[in-house]
Amino acid sequence: MGNETKKKILIVDDEIDIVETLKFILEDAGYECYCAFDGEEGLNIAREIIPDLMILDVMMPKINGYKISRLLKYDSKYKNIPIIMITARSQDEDRLIGEETGVNEYITKPFELDYVVDKVNDYLKAVK
Amino acid sequence: MMKNLLVIVEDNKKKNLLSKDILKMGYNVTCFDDEAEILKLINLNPPDAIIIDSEIKNIDISLFLKRIKIQYKGDHLLTITLVPNNYNNYELIKLSDFIVYPTINNLLLKQTINSCLRLKGTLDNLSKNNQELALSLYQLDVLYNTSSRLAGTLDKTKLIDIMLEGLEKSLSFQLSYTLIYNAKDDLTLIINSLHPLSERFEHAIKLRALLSYNNLFDKKDIICELDSYNIKTIKHVKHPFNEYDLNIFNNDSLFAPIATEEKFFGLVEVFREEEFSQEDVTCFQTIAKQVSLPLESAILYEEIKNANIRLEQLERLKSDFISIVSHELRTPLTAIKNSLEIVINGKTGQLSQSGYKFMDMAKRNVERLSGIINDLLDLSKVEAGKMDFWFKKENINATIEFVKNTFENLAREKNIKILLNILSGNVELYIDSSRIEQIMTNLISNAIKFTNENGQIEIETKVIDGSDIDEKLLYNQDIKFLNKKGKYYKISVKDNGIGIEKDDMNKVFDKFRQIENSLNRKAGGTGLGLPIAKQLVNAHLGYIWVESEVNQYTKFSFCLPILNDKEIFIMNLKRRFDNAAQNKQTFGVVSIIEYNGLKKSLIDDIKNKNLMLIRQKTNEENDFYFEEGDKKYYYTLINNADKFALDFILKKIETHIKNTDLNCVCDNILFSSILYPNECDNINDLLKIIIKDIN
User: Fold this and answer.
1) Which of A10, A109, B42, B424 is 20 to 30 Å from B516 at the Cα level?
2) How far is A12 from chain B (nearest CA, A)?
3) Could you say which of A21, A24, A109 has the minimum Cβ distance to residue B330?
4) How far apart are CA A37 and CA A55, in angstroms?
């Protein structure tokens, strides 16, 4: 499989270790991964490369996950990018905000890597 | 003292004779025959008795007597009238207090005058006593009023105000000062005065207060050293005219400490020009004494209140702390867990056998750690009232069976039998089934953990009355909420395992206690499962308890109330109200009550059409319906409500009525709305207002 046919995933999280493990396992699963370590960087890369899917952390410096999600989902150019949100919080109010801002999927820390891969597969197969 | 008699005679001969006779009897005599002069004299110096001749020409005697009677009613001016024989002016006779004929001898006149004076003396005494009695009554009334008002408050400033008001009413003093001891080096001087005070005078009062203070303690056990500069002064002046001079300190004064046997609160002194009577002193002392006791309670109350606030803050801090820490722990934990997973799954290359063993050990412990964090989070959430519950009417038996099935494999590994002995059929309770799952999971996993191989676990359910529950097994705080008349659904999980020591039995539901327990450490787990289960059961208005015999059995039971629609509504109302109060949010209720079993029911219409009156961002049920007798009730609960939202809902109902053919039913419907905290600030009032029609 050549590089150009690989689906692009953008991972945005200020926790480098989380990004690393996610990148490792998703590259292993055959995706091309881009990484950003704060909200602003994430938003810039997203606009530049237009990824096929994004994994976002909620709590990040500069721009938090919800804001990125809202900015992208209200822009017709990016609104079809599936967004998976990772949060340490499991409270329902978070979910409600997430639903409002167009988050497609929620994953609560600590999560199983296999579960993340399964979810990513689900969304990207649907896009195909 | 010589008595003064006023003689009113015209005839000179009579005048001389009379005055001579009366003088002889030992009285002062003044003679007059001009009405104006007479009245002037009476005004200036009222005589002890008046002797008047009925044959006077230039005075209308009847009119004169009437006038005197009215004008000098309180002075008891008695009159003796000299009348001729066969006198028939009965009006005059009626108006006179005594009658004497002119053919009198001196003896008769003397006796008449004497009895007249005696009568006057008695009347004077009577009225003086009456006045004193009235004054005493008034003081007693003030005292009673003051003491009942003192009993009605626990506010320090108010207590002092009530005391001063009481003193002013009962003693009508010109000046008073009250020195209030708040804390060391914190004193307040309250000056109540009729007239304004000069600065110099104010300072003098301060010095006098200090002097009284020092005298009071006689230099022994003095609470704090005072000087006149660390005293705050509050002045109340009644009339902004005149000014006092220091002479007022020479007036009569009363002084009392405000103190109980153990505590000193201050002192009070009042000044007045007129002397204080014995009653005044008693009244003053009583009031000063009566304010001391409530003051002591007030200070205790304040202390308790502050301590309570501190405790609440600590509790919240702890809860916040746990939740923040737990969140912070989750991120590194995730990184560890994910890294381990990658290595264990062989994605970084083949592991040696022992390498795999230790990696697996690390992974197991990470999972254990995340279990502990989840438990801590759950507990802090449920205690802070932040746990989200999705109550619904659901079949609890289905939940129980589901949990039992998930444990089948684990039980089989230890060769433990799980027996299910539950009431057949569909038992609908108002529950959050995911929480019930959590409780059951905890109880069954505990049972498996503490039961030896080949053991047996029995799950049993029963419908019981509230009065069947043994209070001795319940937590003290829970007992008062137990509804003895209500029905409960009881679920028990009994094992024949190692049992629990008697001393440990009442600790199993205490958080953190179990962490110390070595047994638990061996068995793994945080020991937070049972405290969480207790909180979850309590949130369902239920109770959990344990019975056990060492090496025989352990039986955990919990019961959940079987609620009707009205009780479900009240439970939700209370829960939502508490949440709003705790989070300092507003909360609104809109209600519709229909009377007389209407044929076309608005409430039925709303229910059937599922007319969402207001869209809310909650997963909770907001609309409640129930019937009682021939009445139907509908309530909708609104979080973060305001007057506008409530009015909007009422308008919407109105429009709905207009747009449908329900118009005719309006007479038998009652609409209302209520907003917390604007219109009512506690749950009992709220319940009273919106439930009053039910009871």
Assistant:
1) A109
2) 14
3) A109
4) 12
For B414-466, the pLDDT digits (tens) are: 899 999 998 887 888 999 988 999 999 999 988 998 888 889 999 999 999 98
Contacts of A25 in chain B (CB under 8 A): 338, 342, 347
CATH of the structural domain B4-127, one choice from 3.40.190.10, 3.40.50.2300, 3.30.10.20, 3.30.43.10:
3.40.50.2300
Res B654 pLDDT > 90: no
State which residue of chain B sits closest to A15, comparing Cα positions: B331
> pLDDT, tens digit, for every residue of B342-352?
999 888 888 89
Query: Which CATH number fits the domain B392-561, given the four candidates 3.20.20.140, 3.40.50.300, 3.30.565.10, 3.30.360.10?
Result: 3.30.565.10
Chain B closest CA to A70's CA: distance in Å? 18
d(CA A7, CA A5): 6
- Residue B338 and residue A89: Cβ atoms within 8 Å? no
Per-residue confidence (pLDDT) for residue B695, from 0 to 100: 47
pLDDT in tens, A87-127: 876 555 566 666 667 788 888 888 888 899 999 999 887 54
A and B: number of Cβ contacts within 8 A? 48
Residue B305 neighbours by CB distance under 10 Å? 11
Long-range own/partner contacts, residues B300-305 (CB < 8 A, 24 or more apart): B301/B154, B302/B154, B302/B156
Say if the Cβ atoms of A17 and B339 lie within 8 Å: yes
Superfamily for domain range B147-304: GAF domain (3.30.450.40)
- B358: exposed, middle or buried (C-beta count within 10 Å: 0-12, 13-18, 19+)? exposed
Q: Do A15 and B335 touch (CB under 8 A)?
A: yes
**Long-range contacts, stretch A69-78, CB < 8 angstroms, 24+ apart:** A69/A98, A69/A101, A69/A102, A69/A103, A70/A101, A70/A102, A71/A43, A72/A43, A72/A46, A72/A102, A73/A101, A73/A102, A74/A102, A77/A50, A78/A46, A78/A47, A78/A50
Q: Rounded to a whole number, what is the distance in Å from the CA of A96 to chain B's nearest CA? A: 8
Residue of A nearest to B329 (CA): A88
Compute the nearest-CA separation of B379 from chain A (Å).
14
A109·B342 Cβ contact <8 A? no
**What does the block give as tokens for B391?**
């109550």
pLDDT for residue B1 is more than 80: no
Asked whether the beta carbons of residue A88 and residue B327 sit closer than 8 angstroms, the reply is yes
CB contact under 8 A, A109 and B332: no
Helix axes A92-100, A65-73, angle to 10 degrees: 30
Integer Cα distance of B380 and A13 in angstroms: 27
Compute the nearest-CA separation of B375 from chain A (Å). 13
B565-691 falls under which CATH superfamily? Reverse transcriptase/Diguanylate cyclase domain (3.30.70.270)
Q: How far is B135 from B155, CA to CA, in rounded Å?
A: 30
Classify domain A3-127 by CATH number: 3.40.50.2300
In tens, the pLDDT along B528-576 reads 888 889 989 998 989 999 999 988 999 999 999 998 888 888 888 888 8
Which residue shows structure tokens 């409270």? A91
Antiparallel, parallel or unpaired: β B186-193 and B98-100: unpaired
- Asked whether B340 and B359 are in contact (CB, 8 A), the reply is yes
Task: Point out the residue among B331, B377, B619 whose CB comes nearest to the CB of A18.
Answer: B331
Which residue of B330, B332, B342 is in closest CB contact with A25? B342
Reading the block at residue B337, the tokens are 């867990």
Three-state secondary structure call for residue B674? strand
